[in-house]
C-alpha cells in the first residue's frame, strides 16, 4: 500500500461512526481518492477488508458514482456544468473556448498532463451559471466571454505553490467548493 | 400591489457580517427553539409540526408532521433521522445557501426533529461535490456538541444523539430517499421498492427512518419558534411558511427569492423580483419547480378548480406561488427551482439537454427508465444534429408514455414528464426545427446540447 499513514489511521475513526461497517465504504473511497488521486484495485481490496465485504462489492460502488475514478487525472480537474440552467447561460460556448485555451478536448486529459476537462451534470448553483468547479473551488458566472481569462487563471495556478492549501474565505470560490 | 420577500430561512444569512460560527448564530436567537422543544414532550413537538401544516421542501411536498407519524414505533428497533442534503435536481440551489452560510439553522432544526422522533442517530447525506460544505457542517457540529446542543445529554435532557456527515458520490438518484438509504449503507444507490421499503418502517439498516430535506428541517426550527398554530398563519391554508424560489436561466436577475406561500404570482416573481427578460427578448416558457416538473408555456390559459372549490382562469403570469395553485395548472411547485426560457432558445435543444441529463442519471435498475431515457436522449439529439424525422416528435411521446408509472422510483416520471408536457405544447416548433435542418436553412441559435 502506498497510502499515507494519516489516511490509514483515519479509516478506523470513520468506520466507528457507523452502526454497520459497510456504510463506511464511500467515505473510505473518498479518503483514498483524496490521497492518491484515484482508486486502484489494491485500494478497493483494502476498503473491502476494512468494511467486511468482498472487493467486487466495492468495485460496484466505484463504478456507480461519477465522482470515483480508477485512472489518474490532470493536475487541474476542470468540471463545467452542462445542465439546462448553465447551458442557457452559455456553458456549451464556454466549453468550446476552454477546449482551445487549455488545449484539451472535453472528456480527456491534456497531453501535457496539466488539465482534465469535463462536462458534468448540475452542481446546484444554477442562479450563477455557467459554473465551473476546478478541484476544490467553485467558480460562478463564467460567461463564455470570460473563458480565455479564466483559462489563464487556471494555468497560472499551476505555478502557485500554495494552491489548495489556503484556508477558504467566505464568498470565494474556495469557500463555495 | 407589488409583492415583497418574507425571509425566514434566509433572514440572517443575508445580513452583512453574519457568519457561520455558533456565537453569531446564538447572538441572533439561535438554539432558543431547541430549548423550547426539549422542554416539551417529543410527541408535543410532533404535534406542533403537524398543526403547522409544514410540507416537505424536497420536491414532493408531503406534509412533514404526517411523515413523522408513519414512523413504526412498535418494532422496538432504533429509529434514524436522515437529512437529505443531496441537492441535485437541476434548477435547485436553495439548500446550498443554508449549508454554506447558516449551517447552525439547519442543525437546530435537525436537533429538534431528532428529539421529536427520538432518533438514535442522525446522518446528513450531503452532495459529494459540496466538499467544503461538508467541512463547514462538521465544524458546526463540533461547535454545537461543545455547547450541548447535539451529542451527549442534549441540554441536560438525558437524550443523546450523534450526527455523521456522509458525502455522496455525484449521483442524482441518491436524492431519492430509498436510493439515498442504499447509498448510506455503502451500496449502489438503487432505489428500493415500496412496499415494503417505506423508510418510516424499513429504512436505514431496515430500521424505521425519517428522511427530510435540508430546508424542511430548517423550517422546523421556525415552526418551534412561532409555534405550530402561528406558523400555519404564514402563507395560505394548505401551504404554510415560505417558499424559496431559485430562478435560473434567462432573466435579468437570476437568484433566490424567499416569498410567503401564495402571496405572489409567477408574473411578480419573474418581472418584479427577477427584473423581467434580458434586453430585447421575450419569455417563452418556464420549468417551475426543478427540471422534473412539467413545463409551462407563456400564452397558455390555465382553467380549472382549486381543491377549495374556487374556479380559476389564469395566464401563466397570474398563477399564485403556492403548491395547490401550481398543481392545479398541471405541474408542480417541486423544489421551487424555476428555469426560465426565452425566445432565443430552440425548444428541442432545451428538451434534448434535459433528456441527456436523465439518461446520464438513470440508475439502470428498471428497464423502462434505463432504455427509455437513453432513447429519448438519442432521438432528441438526432433532431438537433439534423438527422431527425418528422415522426420523431410522436416517437418521443410514445417512448415517454412507456416509462412513467412503470418504474421502482420517481426517476421514471422525471424522465417522462418533461417530454410529455413539452411535446404537445411545442410540437409545431419541433417539426419546424426538423424541417429547417432538412432544408438546410438552419441558423444555429444558442447551443444547449
Care to describe what's here?
The complex is a heterodimer of chains A (177) and B (449). By secondary structure, chain A is an alpha+beta fold. In chain A, 43% of the residues lie in helices and 11% in strands. In chain A, a hairpin with a 2-residue loop joins strand 4 (132-134) and strand 5. Chain B has 449 residues and is an alpha/beta fold. Chain B has helices at 22-27, 32-38, 42-52, 64-69, 95-101, 103-117, 131-146, 177-184, 214-226, 228-231, 266-273, 323-328, 347-361, 367-384, 392-401, 411-439, and strands at residues 80-85, 121-126, 162-167, 209-213, 235-236, 239-240, 242-249, 255-260, 283-287, 296-297, 301-305, 311-315, 337-342. Chain B is globular, with a radius of gyration of 22 Å.
Which features characterize this protein?
heterodimer; A: 177 residues; alpha+beta; Arc Repressor Mutant, subunit A; Glutaredoxin; 2 domains; 5-stranded mixed β-sheet; 8 helices; B: 449 residues; alpha/beta; 4-stranded parallel β-sheet; 14% strand; globular
Please sum up the structure shown.
By secondary structure, chain A is an alpha+beta fold.
User: What is the CA–CA distance across the termini of chain B?
Assistant: 41 Å
**Unreliable segments of chain B (pLDDT under 50, ≥5 consecutive)?**
none
Question: How is the main sheet of chain B built?
Answer: 5 strands, mixed
Shape of chain A: elongated
Give the helices and strands, then pairings:
The complex is a heterodimer of chains A (177) and B (449).
Chain A: H1 5-16, H2 25-36, H3 41-51, H4 55-64, E1 76-81, H5 84-88, H6 91-101, E2 108-109, E3 115-120, E4 132-134, E5 137-139, H7 147-157, H8 173-176
Parallel strand pairs in A: 1-3
Antiparallel strand pairs in A: 1-4, 2-3, 4-5
Chain B: H1 22-27, H2 32-38, H3 42-52, H4 64-69, E1 80-85, H5 95-101, H6 103-117, E2 121-126, H7 131-146, E3 162-167, H8 177-184, E4 209-213, H9 214-226, H10 228-231, E5 235-236, E6 239-240, E7 242-249, E8 255-260, H11 266-273, E9 283-287, E10 296-297, E11 301-305, E12 311-315, H12 323-328, E13 337-342, H13 347-361, H14 367-384, H15 392-401, H16 411-439
Parallel strand pairs in B: 1-2, 1-4, 2-3, 7-13
Antiparallel strand pairs in B: 5-6, 7-8, 9-10, 9-13, 11-12
Helix pairs in contact in B: 2-6, 2-9, 3-6, 5-6, 6-9, 13-14, 13-16, 14-15, 14-16, 15-16
Amino acid at each position: 500500500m502506498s497510502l499515507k499513514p494519516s489516511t490509514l489511521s483515519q479509516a478506523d475513526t470513520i468506520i466507528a461512526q457507523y452502526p454497520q461497517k459497510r456504510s463506511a465504504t464511500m467515505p473510505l473511497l473518498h479518503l483514498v481518492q483524496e490521497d492518491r488521486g484515484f482508486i486502484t484495485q489494491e485500494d478497493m481490496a483494502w476498503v473491502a477488508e476494512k468494511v467486511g465485504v468482498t472487493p467486487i462489492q466495492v468495485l460496484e460502488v466505484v463504478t456507480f458514482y461519477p465522482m470515483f475514478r480508477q485512472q489518474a487525472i490532470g493536475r487541474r480537474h476542470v468540471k463545467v456544468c452542462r445542465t439546462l440552467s448553465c447551458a442557457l447561460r452559455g456553458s456549451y460556448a464556454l466549453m468550446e473556448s476552454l477546449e482551445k485555451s487549455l488545449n484539451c478536448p472535453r472528456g480527456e486529459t491534456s497531453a501535457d498532463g496539466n488539465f482534465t476537462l469535463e462536462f458534468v451534470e448540475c452542481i446546484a448553483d444554477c442562479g450563477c451559471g455557467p459554473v465551473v468547479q476546478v478541484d476544490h473551488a467553485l467558480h460562478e458566472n463564467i460567461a463564455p466571454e470570460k473563458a480565455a481569462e479564466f483559462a489563464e487563471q487556471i494555468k497560472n495556478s499551476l505555478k502557485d505553490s500554495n494552491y489548495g492549501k489556503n484556508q477558504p474565505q467566505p464568498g470565494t470560490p474556495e469557500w463555495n467548493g | 400591489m407589488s409583492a415583497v420577500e418574507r425571509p425566514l430561512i434566509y433572514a440572517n444569512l443575508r445580513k452583512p457580517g453574519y457568519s457561520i460560527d455558533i456565537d453569531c448564530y446564538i447572538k441572533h436567537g439561535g438554539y432558543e427553539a431547541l430549548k423550547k422543544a426539549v422542554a416539551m414532550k417529543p410527541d408535543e413537538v410532533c404535534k406542533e409540526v403537524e398543526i403547522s401544516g409544514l410540507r416537505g421542501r424536497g420536491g414532493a411536498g408531503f406534509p412533514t408532521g404526517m411523515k413523522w407519524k408513519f414512523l413504526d414505533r412498535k418494532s422496538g428497533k432504533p429509529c434514524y433521522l436522515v437529512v437529505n442534503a443531496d441537492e441535485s435536481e437541476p434548477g435547485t440551489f436553495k439548500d446550498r445557501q443554508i449549508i454554506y452560510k447558516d449551517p447552525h439553522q439547519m442543525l437546530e432544526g435537525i436537533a429538534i426533529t431528532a428529539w421529536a422522533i427520538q432518533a438514535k442517530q442522525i446522518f446528513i447525506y450531503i452532495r459529494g461535490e459540496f466538499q467544503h460544505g461538508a467541512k463547514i457542517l462538521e465544524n458546526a457540529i463540533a461547535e454545537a456538541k461543545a455547547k450541548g446542543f447535539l451529542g451527549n445529554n442534549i441540554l441536560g435532557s438525558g437524550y443523546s444523539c450523534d450526527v455523521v456527515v456522509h458525502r455522496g458520490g455525484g449521483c442524482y438518484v441518491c436524492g431519492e430517499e430509498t436510493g439515498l438509504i442504499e447509498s448510506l449503507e455503502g451500496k449502489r444507490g438503487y432505489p428500493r421498492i415500496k412496499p415494503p421499503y417505506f423508510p418510516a418502517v424499513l429504512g436505514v439498516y431496515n430500521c424505521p427512518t425519517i428522511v427530510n430535506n435540508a430546508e424542511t428541517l430548517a423550517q422546523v426550527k421556525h415552526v418551534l419558534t412561532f409555534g405550530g398554530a402561528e406558523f400555519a398563519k404564514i402563507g395560505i391554508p394548505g401551504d404554510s411558511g415560505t417558499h424559496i424560489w431559485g430562478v435560473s436561466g434567462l432573466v435579468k436577475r437570476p437568484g433566490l427569492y424567499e416569498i410567503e406561500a401564495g402571496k405572489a404570482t409567477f408574473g411578480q416573481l419573474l418581472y418584479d423580483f427577477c427584473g423581467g427578460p434580458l434586453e430585447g427578448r421575450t419569455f417563452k416558457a418556464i420549468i417551475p419547480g426543478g427540471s422534473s416538473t412539467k413545463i409551462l408555456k407563456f400564452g397558455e390559459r390555465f382553467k380549472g378548480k382549486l381543491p377549495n372549490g374556487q374556479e380559476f382562469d389564469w395566464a401563466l403570469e397570474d398563477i399564485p406561488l403556492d403548491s395547490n395553485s401550481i398543481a392545479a395548472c398541471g405541474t408542480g411547485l417541486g423544489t421551487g427551482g424555476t428555469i426560465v426560457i426565452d425566445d432565443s432558445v430552440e425548444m428541442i435543444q432545451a428538451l434534448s439537454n434535459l433528456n441527456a441529463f436523465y439518461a446520464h442519471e438513470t440508475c439502470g435498475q428498471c428497464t423502462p427508465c434505463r432504455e427509455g431515457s437513453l432513447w429519448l436522449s438519442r432521438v432528441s439529439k438526432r433532431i438537433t444534429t439534423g438527422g431527425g424525422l418528422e415522426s420523431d416528435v410522436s416517437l418521443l411521446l410514445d417512448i415517454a408514455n412507456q416509462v412513467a408509472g412503470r418504474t421502482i422510483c420517481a426517476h421514471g416520471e422525471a424522465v417522462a414528464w418533461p417530454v410529455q408536457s413539452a411535446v404537445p405544447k411545442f410540437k409545431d416548433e419541433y417539426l419546424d426545427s426538423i424541417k429547417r435542418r432538412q432544408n438546410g436553412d438552419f441558423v444555429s441559435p444558442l447551443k444547449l446540447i
